[in-house]
Specification:
The complex is a heterodimer of chains A (590) and B (387). Chain A has 590 residues and is an alpha+beta fold. Chain A contains 16 helices and 21 strands. Chain A starts with a helix and ends in an 8-residue tail after the last helix. Chain B has a four-stranded antiparallel β-sheet. Chain B contains 13 helices and ten strands. Chain B is 58% helix and 16% strand. Classes of the chains: A alpha+beta (590), B alpha+beta (387).
């Protein structure tokens, strides 16, 4: 046994131990914990021994195996773009008419998203064309025919708008699901205009569709500040039950109720709310976990909703001359009039911006705001950095737009698996995998004797490595994934067959045991390498182009092939070398 | 233990022409079959709704069908799942929302009855009816009117005034098919006597996307593998590996075509695995051919290939056998998709093994011969090329 061998042997032992160690969180989440706690990382974290890897490194079960809802929502960006083009067309027409360049009417082609300007007097079109193209740079000239001008929207702008529409929809969907209280939701973008949502443990697809699919509702409502002590009085006169966790907090002179449980807070305030008012909550974001509410605060709002998001024509985040992040709002003509009236009557009061029954922010109105343009200054106060404030401004702009420009979402795909079916599939799937594995193990031991046993050790290590690898990449084990697992084991066996057949061949040529083993491995190496790499290529392409079950399958295949390369080339060779070189054996048992 | 006791010397290559002929014929037949008859596309690709129900009490498929029809679901196919005593059924419907052609007309009429409207347009793909009304309408009234026409409404969206001032835009979103199934089957019962175990609902748009992406994945991986083989071996090996892959994919597609089993995303995964397995097998034999070409310099290529194929025969049989063995568990215990997957894999392993010998290798010979005859014409000596 030379030093190189000991190094390799040490590495294999380390990898094996590491594999077992890495599977501890998986073992706890699937076997030790109760099924209802399976997806709860916090509980898992508590139960895990101190020496175990972090709880997030655990093998997830796909929704097909544990039950739940998987859905893909398509954001109808086309409708949103159409609306936007229409709006821009109207702005252009107003601009041209106001500047007295001539008189034009604007028309939108909903199919191609083109804008057609028709001049009353074709002679004025030259001047109009020049001015419009110079001012509205998000459009370029498509064609001109006498008194009609066809404009096409700038590609980059359209794409940015489309991305934004999807981001808005995601924001709204996340917030709604949070309100539903589902643990371990996964909301992510899929392609250019779809959103993929996983809701483990949920079973009512129609309810989920309704929750996620309805258009966001943005409202501007006045905060009732006539009695700033209203919540403080409520709290003193009717102390909330001790176990409700409702507390009173002070927010710059406005005491508010605060509770980690939104339902409990609303239930407590319900019959104590003054006539004509609503208690609406605000989510206090969890600084550690994104998209999670640490607690909820209460606001007392006028029941009357003077203005909704439909009157809003745009919102952007920017930085003011005072270097403070701010959000700029623009209203349509009718909205502008309403907003002016509203702010005139309410100088000094606060106006709540409410999206889907969640108070996003409640800025104070400093003066009457006319002209349809308003500004919400974020300030730079408090412990937050400039970047945090700017981020806040951007989120607010997104929220406003989500309500203002409805890019409707429609359901592209829903897959729901009941929990009992999931359990059944796990049982059948793992049984199938185990039977396949057992058959192969027995066959190898019988056919190749000792070498077969060595191959079996490698095979079992291979299986464990796949599971640990999936846990490491935080991958999800799906039903097709189990099939991929079985197949990879087949490919791993092929590598061992190749090696053993080569050794037999070399032995039949009369080579010594040592030479036969060395040559067998050397010669088989490139064959195994090529065979694995080509399959790996297929696996990677599958991973990057596939979705859902195909992706789950590809992940298992990739991890499995890498594990197989290691076990068949390194592990079996080190063990075989021990028996042949170390024991100085004169024969090989293949 | 050993499968082949002695070194074999079968003349594989000699029979390459009839083999190629039969394979080509079969492949063409499958392609024609796919074009003429088509796959039995699952909900993944065709779009539609699948609901799996498990009844608490003994129920037959016929009873479920009758009940569904009584509830107004006419184009539903009902199929038992698993053993009869499991009382599980798969219900398939073409539509994903309650907005059918016929329904859309009713909805249009109902909306038009509310006031003067323009541009009433049903977007069947998304289950939405768009319309522009001259006067603002109440969302509730629209919902009521459409529901009155017998179409479940999930939401009525108020898109606000049209900028040109010509009207107000609205969208009516129809509710899903699964809703209707649930309602129809539990009609007249206090509590539904079944459990909704699974709902798959794929919109036609998404279905098309999924299908295109699946096919693209197949094409991309074939091209990538071709490039790898051309680099690692020699150019003349590349096309053979590619043709063998194509052959195997078509044959497995043939399994789905003939068996009428559902062709879905998992089937695409199966086809891709076959690509991987096929090339895996081909590479092992190519490797041996390359090695033997160096070993038997001067021997004609067909003979070298025959030796290589015979040398690796034991390994080929063994590997295919063991991989097939690992699928047995899936074949016995696999349900639905998984069974189909395993079956397709089994077909793939068999044809994959065959194609490495009878498709991949002969193409190498053919390309080699072509190269020779061309060089022969230009006056180069024949023997010099045999090495």
């Amino acid at each position: 046994m030379d030093r190189g061998w000991w190094w390799k042997f040490g590495m294999i032992v380390a990898v094996t131990l590491g594999t077992f160690w890495f599977l501890v969180p998986t073992y706890y989440s699937l076997v030790v914990l109760d099924r209802s706690e399976r997806n709860n990382i916090a509980v898992l974290e508590q139960r895990l021994p101190k020496w175990a890897p972090p709880a997030r490194y655990r093998l997830n079960l796909g929704l097909d195996l544990q039950g739940g809802i998987h859905m893909v929502m398509r954001v109808d960006t086309k409708t949103a773009l159409q609306k936007r083009t229409e709006r821009r067309g109207q702005q252009i027409a107003t601009y041209v008419n106001d500047k007295k360049l001539g008189e034009v009417t604007a028309d939108t082609d909903p199919e191609r998203l083109q804008l057609t300007l028709t001049a009353k007097d074709p002679a004025t079109m030259d001047a109009i064309q020049k001015e419009v193209l110079a001012t509205f740079t998000d459009f370029s000239l498509d064609s001109r025919n006498g008194g009609t001008l066809v404009l096409k929207p700038d590609e980059g702008q359209v794409n940015r708008f489309r991305d934004e529409a999807v981001d808005q929809a995601m924001l709204v969907i996340r917030r709604r699901i949070d309100k539903w209280g589902v643990a371990e939701v996964d909301v992510r973008k899929l392609g250019t205009d779809s959103i993929q949502i996983s809701l483990p443990g949920r079973s009512n697809p129609e309810q989920a569709k309704e929750l996620v699919g309805t258009t966001a509702q943005l409202e501007f409502r006045m905060v009732d500040d006539t009695n700033p002590q209203v919540f403080a009085q409520m709290f003193q006169q009717h102390p909330p039950p001790a176990d409700s966790k409702i507390t009173l907090v002070d927010d710059e002179g406005f005491p508010q109720l605060s509770s980690p449980n939104r339902e409990a807070l609303l239930a407590y305030a319900k019959d104590k709310t003054p006539e004509g008012r609503d208690v609406v909550t605000q989510c206090v974001a969890n600084p550690v976990k994104k998209n999670d509410c640490l607690s909820y605060r209460s606001y007392l709002l006028d029941k009357n909703v003077p203005l909704t998001g439909e009157s809003l024509s745009g919102a952007d985040a920017s930085v003011s001359q005072m270097n403070e992040p701010e959000v700029n709002l623009a209203f349509d003509p009718a909205g502008a009039r309403e907003f002016e009236k509203l702010t005139e009557a309410a100088v000094g009061r606060r106006m709540a911006i409410v999206l889907d029954d969640n108070v996003h922010t409640a800025p104070r109105i400093n003066e009457k705001i006319g002209g349809g343009r308003a500004r919400i200054t974020m300030g730079r106060a408090g412990a937050r950095s400039f970047e945090e404030w700017l981020g806040e401004a951007q989120t607010l702009a997104l929220v406003l737009k989500a309500g203002a420009l409805p890019a409707p979402v429609t359901v592209g795909e829903i897959r729901q698996v009941g929990a009992t079916l999931g359990d059944e599939l796990i049982k059948k799937g793992s049984l199938a995998a185990l039977v396949g594995l057992a058959l192969v193990v027995v066959f190898m031991a019988v056919y190749y004797r000792k070498s077969g046993l060595i191959a079996d050790v490698a095979l079992l290590l291979n299986g464990l490595l796949i599971l640990a690898g999936l846990a490491f990449f935080n991958a999800t084990l799906t039903l097709p994934g189990i099939a991929g697992f079985v197949l990879t084991l087949g490919i791993a066996v092929d590598a061992n067959v190749l090696i053993n057949e080569r050794i037999r061949e070399e032995l039949s040529h009369g080579k010594s045991a040592r030479a036969a083993v060395d040559q067998g491995y050397d010669r088989a190496f490139w064959t195994i390498f090529d065979a694995h790499v080509t399959t790996l290529i297929a696996g990677f392409i599958l991973f990057f182009t596939g979705t859902g079950p195909v992706r789950g399958f590809a992940t298992t295949l990739i991890v499995g092939l890498l594990a197989s390369l290691f076990t068949s080339i390194v592990v079996t060779r080190v063990i075989t070398t021990y028996f042949v070189h170390g024991r100085n054996a004169q024969s090989v048992s293949v | 233990m050993q499968i082949l006791k002695h070194k074999t010397n079968f003349d594989f290559i000699g029979k390459r022409k009839p083999a190629l002929f039969i394979s080509t014929l079969l492949n063409l037949a499958i392609i024609v079959g796919i074009a003429a008859v088509g796959f039995n596309f699952g909900v993944d690709f065709a779009g539609g709704t699948v609901v799996e129900l498990k009844y608490d009490t003994p129920t037959t498929a016929e009873q479920v069908r009758e009940r569904a029809q009584a509830g107004g679901l006419h184009d539903v196919s009902v199929q038992g799942v698993g053993a009869a005593e499991e009382n599980s059924f798969l219900l398939r419907m073409g539509g994903v929302t309650q907005l059918t052609e016929e329904n859309a007309e009713h909805a249009k009429a109902a909306i038009q009855g509310l006031g003067e409207t323009r541009n009433v347009y049903a977007d069947m793909a998304n289950g939405i009816v768009n319309f522009r009304s001259v006067k603002p309408m109440s969302v509730e009234a629209v919902k009521k009117a459409v529901e009155g026409a017998g179409i479940g409404v999930q939401e009525v969206r108020d898109l606000g005034a049209n900028q040109g001032g010509t009207g107000y835009d609205y969208q009516v979103v129809a509710s899903g098919m699964a809703d209707k199934v649930f309602a129809a089957l539990s009609a007249g019962l206090d509590k539904p006597n079944f459990e909704q175990r699974r709902v798959d609902y794929v919109g036609p748009q998404v279905g098309k996307q999924l299908r295109n992406r699946g096919v693209m994945a197949l094409v991309y991986s074939m091209v990538a593998i071709l490039i790898y083989v051309a680099f690692r071996f020699d150019f003349k090996f590349g096309p053979g590996a590619l043709l063998a892959m194509l052959h195997d994919v078509i044959m497995v597609a043939g399994y789905y075509l003939v068996s009428r089993r559902e062709f879905n995303l998992t089937s695409i995964a199966a086809l891709l695995t076959i690509v991987g397995y096929s090339v895996n097998d081909t590479i092992v034999i190519y490797d041996r051919i390359r090695e033997d070409m160096a070993k038997y310099k001067g021997k004609p290529l067909p003979e070298v290939i025959n030796i290589a194929v015979n040398d690796t025969l034991g390994r080929t049989i063994l590997t295919s056998g063991v991989t097939a063995l690992s699928l047995i568990g899936l074949l016995i215990f696999g349900v639905g998709e998984i069974f189909d997957f395993a079956m397709a894999m089994l077909v793939g392993i068999l044809v994959g093994t065959y194609s490495s010998v009878y498709i991949a290798s002969p193409v190498v010979i053919w390309l080699d011969e072509r190269a020779h005859s061309r060089e022969g014409h230009s006056g180069t000596k024949h023997e010099a090329k045999a090495a």
